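ok so for the tutorial part 2 we go from a plain amino acid sequence to predicted structure tokens. step 1 is just haveing the sequence, like this:
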Amino acid sequence: MTKHHNHPRNNSSSPDLPYRRGVGMFIFNGNGHVLIAERLDNPGGWQMPQGGIDEGEEPEVAVFREMQEEIGTRNAEIVGMMDEWLHYDFPPHLIPRLWGGKYRGQKQKWIALRFLGRDGDIHLGTHSQPEFGRWKWVPLQELTGYVVPFKRATYERVMKEFARYVERMA
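step 2 — the prediction. this is what the tokens look like for a chain of 170 residues:
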């Protein structure tokens, strides 16, 4: 197992705060396109679905729970998972607004999932506090054009790791 960590250091103002543990979901369809969704709290802010890992929960379990909460379906299969945890820091102005200022950023286990359902299976409003207002499938090469700058290095690393799965679909 790889022990390498990706630590962008753009948030030196909060080095004593921990990272929030989570899973990132690289969900792709039969055309090799990747699912992204636009955040309700940040119009124009698109991202791949992601969510927290509960205490004692394994990433492989958390990914399906979070997938159900965020996009309303679990109709996918895991095809890959990164060995390493990727980290990114929140911009300093966001720290107080996110999770009560308890975290400096996120530490994520990224998982590639092949979507097995139909587009009609995706429902963003099934959770009591939906995060997303719109979603779409995008070609891999367009993904970084949508992401907020502080997540870009993480997304580039995820794309490099999981490109082999979507390239087989094309």
